[in-house]
Each structure stands twice: as structure tokens, then as C-alpha cells.
Amino acid sequence: xxxSLIATTALLISTAAASAQANxxxxxxxxxxxxxxxxxxxxxxxxxxxxxxxxxxxxAAADQQQIDxxxxxxxxxxxxxxxxxxxxxxxxxxxxxxxxxxxxxLEPMLEQAVEDDTLDTYFALLRPAHVEYSALxxxxxNETDADRRKAIARxxxxxxxxxxxxxxxxxxxxxxxxxxxxxxxxxxxxxxxxIVGKKSTPTPVFNATIEGVxxxxxxxxxxSIVRESVGALVxxxxxxxxxxxxxxxxxxxxxxxxxxxxxxxxxxxxxxxxSVYMHDTPNKNLFEEEVRAFSHGCIxxxxxxxxxxxxxxxxxxxEEVDSIVASGKTTTVSLARPxxxxxxxxxxxxxxxGGVEVLPDIYNRDGAIRANLPD
Length: 375
Fold this sequence. Notes:
Helix 1 runs antiparallel to helix 6 (106-116), helix 4 packs antiparallel against helix 5 (64-84) and helix 8 packs antiparallel against helix 9 (146-160). It is elongated, with a radius of gyration of 25 Å. The chain contains 13 helices and 15 strands. It is of the alpha/beta class. Strands 1, 2, 3, 4, 5, 9, 10, 11, 12 and 13 form a ten-stranded mixed β-sheet that branches. Strands 6-8-7 form a three-stranded antiparallel β-sheet.
């Protein structure tokens, strides 16, 4: 008896199903037709159409074992493309977000789908689940401008480099859009303008976990910035350096908390190998600029205290956050639950009208990615 769609869906996405003992599966003519339909429609998802000549020959020879082998190999190639993307390592250069989908065991799930006659569900559940991907897919089907179609296709591919599901609560920063969004329970709970790295010091693409908020932070000045400006200021005008809060402490230059601190009044606790953080800034006027690429790589956040208070809901009220800031005392407050943060780069995004906006490629990264387009 066929399983219900709900039971099948649960089976395909559960870890238990992925690790279950595999059963031998025979590909029926209906299964092969479904697979061929998904192969033919792959360009609608900005994926290349995979060759199926070997499967066609097996079908023509009516060799069931060969049909099973060729269909399984082709289906797994297509499944990996939908789930993980089709780009080469060179095309993915600089994309440092860990894709947990690589741990999914696709073969036992495929065998179960063939057994249950649920191949359509199997492939559909491997697409990126985010609403942004759905918007791009719809736009690609209707777009006629060649350059816009390429941008949309490239960003659909980027979404396959992300975990298929980002979870219910997370922060998504898009450096190309100069924006950060907080998602809670699968719904966007707020957006904030951000300033990102200059072309010479671009913000890297990576993921981390927000563990807490530092209010009235010290700035541990990176060696590159000491060489670029702070070191010379200390040597040439030590009085001005002291006025700006620069001190030598524990073998490095630091800046005291205060209104002139480069981190402003807030910095997130989000450990990562790039030493890139979301933080406040004293230069609030820069958030009015349309192109906000001014930093050394870190992410300066507009309405930073409001953003921090939103992250700390359930732990501190806005009034309590404001009180800590006003005290001038460096204080670290942990979030109720750590929140994943994804620092991304998408140059085609969903707009407020339900369509897609193509953004300037400020870091010139799009050209490295092939654009697989439907005819």
C-alpha cells in the first residue's frame, strides 16, 4: 500500500530514513518517465540538463538490471545537483558557508522513493526551501532580459550552496544588499541597514553563531589597522591618540569604550576564523548612503542598539539595554538561545512587490559562476 504524502515527506527529510537499511528497488517504466521529466526540467532550476543516453539504451534493450543501475546513477547525480549545486570548486571560491546537506545520505532515500512511487516528492524536497529561492525560480521562468536571467540563475546556484533549510530562527546578512534580516519562526522579524567591506577589503562569506551581545565594547585593534593609521597617530600625536581612547594594553593597541569607539556601543559575540563581527559605529551618517561599502570587512549595523535589544528579547528589555549602554560599563549579555548567522552575497533578491531585484555586483563575484539557463 502506498504511504500518504505526509508520511513520505517525513521519510525523505528525516535522519532516520537517511540511515535506514537500504532495500533493493526496481525502476518501473513510470519511474523512468518521472526521472526523465525531472532531467528535462532541470534548466528551469538553473541546472544543466544531464545526459541520459545510457539510460535510454538500457530501456531500449529492456535490460532491467542495466535500467536500475543507470537510472539510479542519473537520479543521484540530479539529486546532488538540486541539493548541493553544480558549480566547480573554482566557481565556489570564497564561499565559506558550511553546507550541512552534504551529510545527507541520498541513496537510501532514493531507493525508498522508488519503492513508494514518490520520486516527484523526493526531487522537490531537495530544492532550497527558502522563499528567496522560490522567488528567483519564478522570476527566471518569466524573465526575458539576458543579463537579468544570468544574474538570477547564478544566485539560484548560490542558494544551493546554503543549507537547504536555515532553521526557524537565524540572521541573514546580504553584503550585496547592505542589509541584515532577522528571521523568527520562519518569518522575517526585522531588517537593518548595514555597512560592509570596501572593494579592497571585502566582507567574507561565512556562517557563525551569535552567542551574545557586548554593550560598551573595547575595540581590539587589528594589526592591519594599526599599520594603516592608528600606529602612526600614536607616534605623531600621542595626546590626540589618548583623547580618542587608544591605549597599549596586554601587548596590543585597544580603544576604550565611549562615543568615539570604532565599534560604537555594541558588538555581537559571534566567534569566527575571519575575526569579522556585526557591530555599531559612531559614523551614523553613512547609513544614508545607497552604496555602503566602507569598512575593513566587519559589518556595521544601523540602529545597532535596537538590533541588539531585538536579539536579547526574553533576556533584557529595551529599557535594561539602554540602561547598560548609558552606564558606559562593558557588559556581555548572552542570548536566550544562540542564533545562526549567515554572511552571504546574493546579487538577485526578492523585492517588496513580489518580483526580483538585480543588485550591483560590488565585489565582481558573479562572473566566476556559470549561468545555466533554460532555452
